[in-house]
Amino acid sequence: MKRIGKFSPYLLIAPSFFLSVFVIGYPIFDVVRMSLFKVNRFGKLQKFNGFGNFTKAFSDDVFLQTIGQTAIWTVSVVGGTVLLSIPIAMILNEDFYGRSVARTIILLPWAVSLAMTAVVWTWVVNGDFGTLNMTLNSLGLMDGNYVWLANADAAFTIVILIGILVSIPFTVTIFLGGLTSIPDTLYEAAMTDGASGWKRFRYITMPLLKPFTQIAVVLNVIYVFNSFPLIWIMTNGGPANQTDILITYVYKQAFRFGKLDKAAAGSVVMFAMLVIFTILYFYITRDKHPAAKKAKDADDAVLEDLNVSKA
Amino acid sequence: MSPKLKRSLICWGLLSPIVVVILFPYLTMLSTALTAKSEIFVFEKSWFPKVPTLENFAMVWTERGFGRALANSLYISIGATLLSVIVAVPAAYAMSRLHFKGRNAYRIYLLITQMISPIVLIIGLFRLFAFLGMVNSMNALIAAQSAFFMAFAIWMTASYFDTVPKELEEAAWLDGAGKFTAFMRVFLPLCLPGIAVTALFTFINSWNEYALALTLLRDNASHTVPVAIAFLTGTLYEIEWNLIMAATFMATIPVAIIFASIQRYLIRGLSLGGVK
């Protein structure tokens, strides 16, 4: 048997390591450095500026307004997604005719580029010729046409709803994984004890899904917080910056207005928030297979309870 | 009525609102793509074009540079898939088979690369490739995308490597095969299906990617499909929705079919990545 030596594992991971340091590590360093310097519009670093760029960003009303909108966007999309995904996953976990077709349809938005989803929905909600107005009119729910994306509240609501729609597939997949890990025997035992459907949901499904819910929330917060194409293509942050979120704000500052200092400071603020979410994620999943382990512990506990109540 | 039939009706009934909302844009897309331009901008609209036509597909292909964008997207997606798989396979082997100091640290490092979205670093990335003179270079986009897709490829591949019994390799070693030969002749063929699935997911991710492609490829001639289509909605004096929907249809349906046929493997990649 040949030995390649103790360095071989490091040689094997080296290509992936260097690729990610080059494409991810260096830009992190560069953005953080840029946020602390005065930068001209061609991206040349001039002199150390301390936290000057941050004060500049935080004294920009649009930036502050954008932070609030980012919070609304993230909380509504993640909240809506999780609330809808649990019942959908529970239905898809039932045994019924056409289940695989239903699963494929629910997962469909995952397969399609967010940019394409945004383009198609822009056409669907088009004020003059879109199919949404046409359908609402023919169902008698509305009279006349409404230009959805011209009004800030309507536009924000629509991008949030579409945000929910495209986040459901991933979240349902997590919950389906969680539901299949709950043994049927638990429900059977509960039924023999005469527990109602609601009680079975409240005392078996909910506690056992808890670790999966936590993971779904944290990962969705990260993805939604970072989500760019939907808003960029559908509203471009408008009207009047009222649908901007941090990521579109930063992008505009950098690539439209050439304000690289503010953009870098904004990026670092976002990066700091992501670091916090990531630490939260590691805290939740700190054991090796945390969800599985917690689910198993929870099972044992419930089984014990059931035994006790039987005895 | 059998209990299962009854249950099926209830389940479909409960799912119907979301199913309608998901399918609504696709029906719109199909209906518009089959409608001639003269019929789009009329106020008496209906779902079904009076005279269904395929001319939009032909036109977008030849006259709006969609063919070019498609070729760019294919080049980039194939490149990003190859590069991701090439860096992922050895790393996945190390993560799945070898015990070494720092293995867990590397696992966490990979997870962190997944938490950072390219767009937070977009200014830094742009400056990096501008410094290297690689803005508008499709190869730069391939490198950038691969770095962000690689972690998923490593987890997914490693989850397949975990299913191959160690004994098979050990038997090959005993028969005198070197580690590399054993890997190439015994191990890799067994894992090919898993690597293929990983490659398909990476391909789809790259095909659908928008933010990096928008930022790094600024020249019209190097636009990818999503960027080219989104561009059509914003620049023209008169937005040609019939053509845009035909293009969107061609860009999404093949990929959606591939995705649907391999979606059941996704759970594996997610579970090993520590999501589950």
Task: Report on the architecture of this protein.
The complex is a heterodimer of chains A (311) and B (276). Chain A has 13 helices and two strands, in the order αββαααααααααααα. Chain A is mostly helical and 311 residues long. Chain A has a domain at 37-95 and 155-310: MetI-like (MetI-like fold). In chain A, strand 1 (37-39) and strand 2 form a beta hairpin. In chain A, helix 2 crosses helix 12 (260-284). The longest helix of chain A is centred in the N-terminal third of the chain and has 32 residues, at 61-92. Chain A is globular and about 75 Å long. Mean pLDDT of chain A is 85; it is low at 298-311. Chain B is mainly alpha-helical. Chain B has two domains: 3-55, no CATH class; 57-272, MetI-like fold (Orthogonal Bundle), CATH 1.10.3720.10. Chain B is 75% helix and 0% strand. Chain B has 13 helices and no strands. In chain B, helix 1 packs antiparallel against helix 12 (241-262) and helix 11 packs antiparallel against helix 12. Chain B is globular, with a radius of gyration of 23 Å. The model of chain B is unreliable at 272-276 (pLDDT under 50). At the A-B interface, helix 1, helix 3, helix 4, helix 5 and helix 7 of A face helix 1, helix 4, helix 5, helix 6 and helix 7 of B.
Mind sketching the topology for me?
The complex is a heterodimer of chains A (311) and B (276).
Chain A: H1 8-35, E1 37-39, E2 45-48, H2 52-58, H3 61-92, H4 99-111, H5 114-124, H6 131-138, H7 152-180, H8 184-192, H9 197-225, H10 229-234, H11 246-255, H12 260-284, H13 290-310
Antiparallel strand pairs in A: 1-2
Chain B: H1 3-33, H2 37-40, H3 55-63, H4 66-97, H5 103-115, H6 122-131, H7 138-161, H8 166-174, H9 179-208, H10 211-216, H11 225-235, H12 241-262, H13 266-272
Helix pairs in contact in B: 1-12, 3-12, 4-7, 4-9, 5-7, 7-9, 7-13, 8-9, 9-12, 11-12
